[in-house]
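seq as requested:
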Amino acid sequence: MLSNLFLDTGSPSFTEFLGNYAPDLLPGRRDALATPAGADLPHATTIVAATCAGGVVMAGDRRATSGNMISQRDVEKVWRTDDFSCMGIAGTASSGIEMARLYKVELEHYEKREGRTLSVEGKANRLATMIRGNLPMAMQGLVVVPLFAAYDPEEGKGRIFSYDVAGGPYEQRNYHMIGSGSIFARGSLKKLYREDAEPQEAVLACLQALYDAADEDSATGGPDVTRSIWPIVAVITEEGFNRLPDEEVAGLVRTMLDGRMNRPDGPIAPLR
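C-alpha cells:
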C-alpha cells in the first residue's frame, strides 16, 4: 500500500502530498515553541531584483546576523528554483533555506508528474501557498519573506513577485527589494535603474544598490574583499538561470570599489 502511495501521489503538489503523508516534515507544521523565546536566530538580509532587456537580475548580500552579532559571512540567500526562476530569502535564515529547497522540489515534482512546467503565475501562487503554510511559525517570530523572480517565455520578459507573511503574491514593476537594507537599496535603484537596460548594466545597478544598503544598514554585508566573499548574482533570460561565477562578480565589484574611492556615495544618475 505504501508503494502505491509513492507511485501515485494523487496531486501535482509535493507539499500537499507531504502534508497528507508526513505533515510534521513541513516547516510550518513544526513546533515553534521548541525555539526558546527571544532566541537570536540567524537572520538574512538584503535581496534586490530588477528587470532588464529580455530577463531579470537578482542579487543578495552574504551576511546573516543574530541580534547585533554577525553569525555567518557567506550565507546563500539567492536560490535557483528551476531553469527559469529563482527566489531570494529574508528573515529567519534556517526557515528560508528550508523553504527554498522544498519549493524547488515542489516545482520539480509538478513538472515530472504533469509533463510540463507551471506558468510564472502558477509558480508565484505555489510559493504563496507555502508561505501561508508557514504563518503559524511566522506568528511565533520565525518570519520568512521571499522575493521571487522568473523569466516568462510567453511574454518574453522577466517578472518579479513579492510577498507578505500571509502569502500574497504581489507583482512588482521594474525592481523590488526585501530585507532590512531594502529602504536604502530602493533609494539607490530609483536613481540608477533604467528600463530595458542590458543584463550587465542591471547587474551593476543591483551591486551598487547592495553596496548602498550595506553602507547604511549594519545587518547588510558589503563585499568582503579580504575573504573573497562576493554577493550572489543571478541572471535569468530565455537561455535559463545563470549564477554569475565569483570571479566575474569579483571583477565587477572591484571596478565598483575603484569608482567609490573617488566618489564614496556612488555614481550620480544623469538628469534627462
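The first helix runs from residue 2 to 7.
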